[in-house]
Amino acid sequence: ISACEKGCEWIKALQLLGTMEAGTVQPDAITYGAAISACKWAGDWVKAVWLLDAMVQSKVQRHTIAYSAAISACKKDGEWIKALQLLSIMADERLQTDTISLNAAVSACETCGAWSQALLILTTMVKGNIELDTITYSAAISVCEKGGEWAKAMELLQVMVQGKMQMNIITYSAAISACEKGCEWVKALQLLGAMEQDQ
């Protein structure tokens, strides 16, 4: 199933899982996690969530990796509300959230520009001493850009500068786009210059 996941063969992964369940071999947490990850690559959040539920029915302990993969599947399909619900369920089950699961949730907010929810996740990360990385900030800046919140995007960029964090092309592109939407062309040109210096 892991090989199918890595090869983006999610249909085969689910077929193998079904064969296991019908036979004498019981799927475990790793098997389910790989199948959910395969659904993530397909962007099929419905199947990913269904597999999370199947874990409970099969009396298999759900884990952070399985949830992170399901949240990522929600991200690919623009299902940010479902992604946030999964985060809430993780908390209810007392599962540790990590940078990967929270980054996926921030990215899920991007499709509709749910910037306030994305910033709440960042606050949760800071309070929980969970590492905020370049991916975290880039996703949050992109969410602010999509939500028309150029000033918030610039605040996040400033936090990155103060923390001496590495900015990548995605970070700069999102910030420049946020400035464009806010008619802040001088800031956009400054960022373009900074990006060229960094490269």
How would you sum up this structure, described in words?
The protein is mostly helical. The chain is 75% helix and 0% strand. It has helices at residues 2-6, 10-22, 29-42, 45-57, 64-76, 80-92, 99-110, 115-127, 134-146, 150-162, 169-181, 185-198. The relative contact order is 0.08. The model has no long low-confidence stretch (mean pLDDT 87).
Largest β sheet strand count, sense and barrel closure: none
Order of H and E elements: HHHHHHHHHHHH
- The number of helices is 12
> Which value, in Å, is the CA radius of gyration?
19 Å
- Structural class per helix/strand content? mainly alpha
Task: Please bin the fraction of helical residues.
Answer: over 70%
Primary descriptors:
199 residues; mainly alpha; 12 helices
Short description:
The chain is built from twelve helices and no strands.
Q: Secondary-structure map with pairings?
A:
Blueprint lengths: L1 H5 L3 H13 L6 H14 L2 H13 L6 H13 L3 H13 L6 H12 L4 H13 L6 H13 L3 H13 L6 H13 L3 H14 L1
